[in-house]
Amino acid sequence: MCEDPRFPGVLVHQSSYVDDGAVLGRGTKIWHFCHILPRTVIGEGCSIGQNVMIGPDVRIGSGCKIQNNVSIYSGVELADDVFCGPSCVFTNVNNPRADVSRKDEFRKTPIGRGASIGANATVVCGHSLGEYCFIGAGAVITKDVPAFALMAGNPGRRIGWMSRAGERLGQDLKCPRSGEVYIEVDGRCVLKESH
Description:
Layout: E1 2-3, E2 11-12, E3 17-18, E4 23-24, E5 29-30, E6 35-36, E7 41-42, E8 47-48, E9 53-54, E10 59-60, E11 65-66, E12 71-72, E13 76-78, E14 83-84, E15 89-90, E16 109-111, E17 116-117, E18 122-123, E19 134-135, E20 140-141, E21 149-152, E22 157-161, E23 181-185, E24 188-193
Parallel strand pairs: 2-5, 3-6, 4-7, 5-8, 6-9, 7-10, 8-11, 9-12, 10-13, 11-14, 13-16, 14-17, 15-18, 17-19, 18-20, 19-21
Antiparallel strand pairs: 1-2, 21-22, 23-24
């Protein structure tokens, strides 16, 4: 890996392509065989794993970790500190056909701060993922996901709550790692206080 003179403080492996018009934040690393398309903005301190394609016109927050074999298409937006597990999938059109252009039908898919998406999970476009939600490996997300939700299965369903620290919350809704306490309000989980 070497520093790309166009992006001070950014390391890009020589097998990867970063198209003109992309913006990369300091401390970001682009590993082997990646392609960053025009008008893509990637924040500071991100790790982009092997064989990742991003863009065009995608926004990635700071501190994100995108593991191997992920494609992030127009319409997807990652907030800060999002984790995308190996081979997770995003879509951007609900009814694709090879012979029908649907570029004017791309749907927005905002991914909230601190969300984790497990290996081989699929996020169907047009749905938002709330902050610090946790999408289990192989889950298929077909509806909006609330903050802190733990989702699993096909179609994905909520099977519990997760803390900001990535720990499954028990009945007391207290994070065993951080001590933070959560409460349920109208079918949602919110942070009550921290210790």
